[in-house]
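Mods, move this if it's the wrong board.
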Amino acid sequence: MGSAKEQQLEDPVLAPAIERARVLAEALPYIQQFDNKTVVIKYGGHAMVKEELKAGVIHDVVLMESVGIRVVIVHGGGPEITKLMKKLGIQPKFFEGQRVTDEETLSVTQMVLDGKINGEIVNGINLAGGRAVGLSGKDAGLVLAKRFRPTGPDGKVGDIGYVGEVERVNPEILDVLDKHEFIPVISPIGVDADGQTLNINADTVAAEIAAALKAARLILLTDVRGICKNPADPATMIPTIRAADCEALIRDGIISGGMIPKVRACLEALAGGVEKTHILDGRIPHALLLELFTDTGIGTEIIS
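Not the wrong board. Structure tokens:
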């Protein structure tokens, strides 16, 4: 028969508490590593739609802020925009993954991003005990952009409307909010030199903001486990990829489809001075904490 101390350690009532303490002890070095560092999160996919996942992400963000991490959120909203467009009888159109944005589509986009999604995220963080402020990329000249004119397979330059690409990020407003310990929640709407509103890819906005802030991490929440050699098999996920190897993986078809712009956003962030970038499956509960605060991590990190 074991000693009283050994029996106590095996007590099923104490076991959950002991496991929680073990997890906290494992997390401590990572918490110390990220103290006062900036982490930019691109928030999208099912984690933004399913209520239980949404609540988990928001609580993770508040926890990260509570332990000294400077969190900045950039959110998408493509499915919500498409849903409202169809309800209004507007047929969505896309060109190489970019939403063709005429005046009517731009109005719907701003309505969904600035008026609905941004406010919901801000409200959720505030209710969870954080302090969040909603921003558009137009606010205080945060995201200055120009019209994006893609080149088609025939070599001709196309016109997809009021779609932008980032020219410059002015992080002054973010520095002000950080000084007063607010969490910025940013919708990917920018403005050009003439004051024209432009719809911008959220991954790109997140990458450019991360670079402007010299963030420690850029994290893209998606609906896939990461970059997999076989997309149908999560067990083939590649935990770490060097930036120099990404183009070869694109040529080989391992990085394909919608993953290509995400990877290119990561490369832009790394080139701009971000320490590491991560592509995570936001459908996994507490994906942010698992990636940042555990020994194993759960997604693909792209490093320079």
